[in-house]
Amino acid sequence: MDSVELQRLAQRTRTMREIGIGILFASGILTLFIFIPLTGVAKKSPATPITIATPIAPSAFSRIPIEAKAAVVYDLATKKILYAKNAYAQLPLASLTKLLTMYAAFSEFSPNTPITIPANVTHLSEPHAFHAGQIFALASLARITLTASLNDGAAAIAEATAAQENRTLHETLAGVATALDLTQTYAVDGNGLDMNTAVSGGYGSAIDLARLAGAFVAEAPTVAAATTHRFAQATSTDGVFFRVKNTDPEVNAIPHLLLSKTGYTDLAGGNLALVFDVGIGHPVAIVVLGSSLKARFTDGMALVDATLAHFAGMPSL
Predict the structure, then answer these.
(1) Inter-CA distances, 214 with 56, 74, 108, 134, Å
(2) Backbone angles phi, psi at 117, to 5 degrees
(3) Cβ(185)–Cβ(100) under 8 Å?
(4) Which candidate in 35, 114, 237, 259 could, as Cys together with 275 as Cys, close a disulfide (CB 3.0–4.6 Å)?
(5) What is the rounded distance in angstroms from the CA atom of residue 317 to the CA atom of residue 305?
(6) Cα Rg of the chain (Å, integer)
(7) Which residues have a Cβ under 8 Å from the Cβ of 39 and sit 6 or more positions away?
(8) Confidence band (pLDDT; 50, 70, 90) for 58?
């Protein structure tokens, strides 16, 4: 090795030694900071906790114009109320009572159980569609009954369920309400039609109906799905074909809709129950009670938009 190379090697060795000394010195200083007791310093000058204010995003449900007397947005996955307006007030249900009737029927019968239309239900007020003696599979009859809110179809299903249980209709519906812990729900018929100018055929709260709607979707999802389309159809056992129009004109505007049910009587005003998914396997129920014939839909859509904004982390869409 010549003298020039020796000089270069010596210089590189000195450089590495200097770097090593520097690292050791820095490590020593760091060790002092880590291991020197700080109690004396703390006693002389105690540290003041620093609080960082976290801005609270505006609620997606704030300042929503809701005409309804009562409304709720209920997260069926977490069992939490996201929005409430008089959610526990007991109000007339109108045709939302049909959800109680259908849950009772599917708890008792299989979807293919034949249901006969009795003569005594064919005189009920509109909407109605059937003749005495016609027979349908329960699921078929339920699909068009819920979609078009048919009073004769619901009455036929309610009577068949009560007869199967050997109980009065009131006892049958009360049993379902008790089983689902719907403490403010009470029904005297399967339709929720007004009994007279002062008494409704069914009463309940928005929170009760949200839970009921979620329970029915879980019990009979394919029947509930029929209510999410503009039209539903069914055929009686003797081959008579029925095609009915949905009483909710907004079904196509709601993403991932699982159920839609309307209701309206003079005593109840306009009612609406919706269930839709905000994520995979994450259903949310919206119920509007005591609105008007038209505003039940604008109320419902306002709450749908707010719900979607809520889960998107936005104050509004």
Answers:
(1) 31, 9, 18, 30
(2) -80, 110
(3) yes
(4) 259
(5) 7
(6) 33
(7) none
(8) low
User: What pLDDT is recorded for position 42?
Assistant: 43
Query: Do 176 and 183 touch, CB atoms closer than 8 A?
Result: no
Cis peptide bond N-terminal to 127, omega within 30 = yes
In DSSP terms, which residues pair with 71 in a beta bridge?
Answer: 85, 288
E-assigned strands of 131-265?
Answer: 135-137, 186-187, 202-204, 231-235, 241-245, 257-265
Q: Phi then psi for 91, rounded to 5 degrees?
A: -135, 160
**Residue 30 pLDDT level (bands cut at 50, 70, 90):** very low
- CA pair distance 35, 171, nearest whole angstrom: 76
Q: Which amino acid is at 270?
A: G
Structure tokens at 249: 């004109």
Residue with the bigger pLDDT between 297 and 35: it is: 297
Q: How confident is the model at residue 232 (pLDDT cuts 50, 70, 90)?
A: very high
- Nearest alpha carbon to residue 101 among 187, 228, 223: 187
pTM strictly above 0.90: no
Strands 114-116 and 135-137, how do they pair? antiparallel
Q: Looking at this protein, which amino acid is placed at residue 195?
A: M
Distance (Å, whole) CA 170 – CA 312 = 43
Segment 163-215, tens digit of pLDDT: 999 999 999 999 999 999 999 999 999 999 999 999 999 999 999 999 999 99
d(CA 157, CA 116): 8
Q: Contact 183/204 with Cβ under 8 angstroms? A: no
Helix (H, G, I), strand (E, B) or coil at 203: strand
